[in-house]
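Please decode residue identities from the backbone states below.
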């Protein structure tokens, strides 16, 4: 009896800690399900790239929003140093939710060559 009571209390403690006793459906805490207006997509993209790759938001250059294959895509780039760029694409689903960042090219040369 004592052993069963201890097991029951432990099980209730685990359920309480994990939140299973709450009747509300819980959603993930990330912004994956948040709808973003087209007007706010560039700043949201810039913020996500800045957070993900540790780049100052002012150093990120974004191209205009484009529609491709049912998604909205914002391409952009940022400079690693004076000769290398990182190019990326922020992808938004057709219901205006953020799908993720796709690194398009890594370490693109940004050097000008002059003919002799």
């Amino acid at each position: 009896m004592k052993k069963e009571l201890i097991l029951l209390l432990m099980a209730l403690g685990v359920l309480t800690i994990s939140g299973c006793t709450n009747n509300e459906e819980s959603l993930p805490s990330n912004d994956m399900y948040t709808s973003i207006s087209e007007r706010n997509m560039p700043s949201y993209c810039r913020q996500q790239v800045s957070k993900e790759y540790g780049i100052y938001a002012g150093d990120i250059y974004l191209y205009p929003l484009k529609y491709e294959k049912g998604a909205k895509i914002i391409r952009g780039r940022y400079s690693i140093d004076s000769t290398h760029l990182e190019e990326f694409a922020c992808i938004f689903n057709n219901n205006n939710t953020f799908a993720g960042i796709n690194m398009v090219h890594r370490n693109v040369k940004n050097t000008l060559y002059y003919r002799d």
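Observation: Residues 2-18 form the longest helix (17 residues).
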